[in-house]
Specification:
Elements: E1 16-26, E2 32-42, E3 48-54, E4 58-59, E5 64-73, E6 79-86, E7 91-96, E8 102-104, E9 107-114, E10 121-128, E11 137-148, E12 154-166
Parallel strand pairs: 4-12
Antiparallel strand pairs: 1-2, 3-5, 5-10, 6-9, 6-11, 7-10, 8-9, 11-12
Length: 191
């Protein structure tokens, strides 16, 4: 006979699932027999963490910002990773270290893979638009989910935000004169 079981979501990566069977029987001549066997399966799942950073905390209009998105798989199963990176208003996408699978307005889409026990990242570069006002916060949020190669199970991997404040340079000019009124031939000193 066949017994089908389903691995519970509470099973952890590397957990050993052992199925034991034993049979005791008696044959027609009165002799008793026993037989035992077991089968072992090791749980293999991806465990992907997600985080996002930006290379600067403040920027000027026209500056280039580099965002790094980390998707590290500490599990033993490889997986496909889907990242949606929502660029803030006030920046223009330049390029990325991974190919885009799609773009809609400020939303960038990436379909990637993460082997078991692997550290992975991608970079996204943007330019701060000249029209961004002084003091504006550029909050860039990305979302990640992943699908296990072995089981096809999809997991929510989380989201993270990286922020940069646009600070325009402030230059104050002050002009002084030593005479508020002057006649012909008189010297005036400006500082």
């Amino acid at each position: 006979f066949v017994v089908n079981v389903q691995v519970l979501p509470s099973a952890t990566d590397g957990e050993v699932l052992r199925n034991n069977v034993s049979i005791d029987y008696e044959v027609a001549n009165g002799n008793s027999w026993s037989n035992n066997d077991s089968a072992v399966t090791v749980v293999s799942i991806p465990i992907v963490s997600f985080s996002k950073t930006v290379d600067v905390s403040t920027a000027l209009q026209g500056d280039i910002l580099t965002y790094r998105l980390y998707y590290n798989n500490t599990g033993s199963d490889s997986c496909s990773v889907n990242i949606t990176d929502i660029l803030p208003a006030g920046v223009t996408y330049l390029d990325s270290s991974a190919s885009l699978s799609g773009q809609s307005g400020q939303a960038l889409y990436f379909n990637l893979t993460a082997d078991g026990s692997s550290d992975n990242s991608l970079t996204v570069r943007v330019r701060v638009d000249d029209s961004v006002s002084n003091g504006t916060w550029l909050n860039n949020t990305a979302f990640m989910n992943y699908t296990a190669d072995l089981s096809g199970t999809t997991y929510t991997g989380g989201n993270d935000t990286a922020s940069t404040q646009v600070l325009s340079p402030f230059i104050q000019v002050s002009k002084l004169v030593d005479h508020l009124t002057a006649g012909h031939g008189q010297y005036i000193k400006y500082t």
